[in-house]
Amino acid sequence: MPRTASNVPKCLVSALASTRFSTRPTLTNRSDNFRRNYDRPMPEIELRWLTEADDQRRAEIHTVVHDVVAAGGAVGYHEPPTFERISQWLDDILKQVRDGNAAFATAVVDGVVQAVGLWRRGSTAVFQHRAEIQQIMAHPAARGLGLGKRVVQGLVEHARENGIEIVMLGTRGNNHGAIELYESLGFRECGRMPNAIAVGNERWDDVWMYLPLGYPAGTVLNGAKAGGLGSSPRRS
């Protein structure tokens, strides 16, 4: 979906530009594995923006995606993906990042990636002012830290800083917790296609949500007003 860009955004010049959070949450309701590692107040949680990913980061990101899918997460895969598939996916999205048409965020806990998310710019001229937020997921063992919320908030602000006017996202109709999270951040439902997501022999609603980020001075908001390019007269 890339739009050609002459320069990579300044905030993406470094391969890992980090945003630090000063809060130090104490973990509750953790798995045994996570409890062994984090039975103490948490150190700083960092939101890092990637333009490149070495083998270590790729392995950490693959672990997040693999384990989320294995736990039944609705992130676009029917079965846990291989390392090679995730590595190719990263190559594709990180090229778009370097072209200025996307951003890839990782939430890092104790130096290890525990959550990811991204936005992609619209692919054609009439949609390049908007972006879709995709692949928001946190490792099952890291749930309860608010990493998903941090990632979405970071993506929204990052998109705003890069001139995006509207961000959109899609989610499964039964993902009520995610829908409530997005609503708490200002997203509103703008469309729902009944039973449009297939998982085996089950079907679920495809829910679309949007959040306006602001428009440049002088922008004319016509909505459904008659007239102008692309218009057509009513048939009756």
Attribute tags:
236 residues; alpha+beta; eight-stranded mixed β-sheet; globular; disordered N terminus
Describe what this molecule looks like in 3D.
By secondary structure, the chain is α+β, with helices and mostly antiparallel strands. It has five helices and eight strands. The protein has helices at residues 32-38, 55-70, 83-98, 147-161, 176-184; strands at 16-21, 45-50, 102-109, 112-121, 130-138, 166-172, 188-199, 202-212. Helix 2 packs across helix 3. The protein is globular. 27% of the residues are buried.
Relative strand content: 25-35%
Helix content: 25-40%
Give me the secondary-structure category: alpha+beta
Seen as an oligomer or otherwise, the chain set is single chain
Note the main sheet: 8 strands, mixed
| Count of separate DSSP helical elements | 5
Mean pLDDT metric: 85
Low-confidence stretches: 1-33
Radius of gyration: 19 Å
Q: Given the C-alpha coordinates, what overall shape results?
A: globular
Briefly characterize the structure.
27% of the residues lie in helices and 29% in strands. With 236 residues, it is α+β, with helices and mostly antiparallel strands.
Can you lay out the helices and strands and say which pair or pack?
Elements: E1 16-21, H1 32-38, E2 45-50, H2 55-70, H3 83-98, E3 102-109, E4 112-121, E5 130-138, H4 147-161, E6 166-172, H5 176-184, E7 188-199, E8 202-212
Parallel strand pairs: 5-6
Antiparallel strand pairs: 1-2, 2-3, 3-4, 4-5, 6-8, 7-8
Helix pairs in contact: 2-3
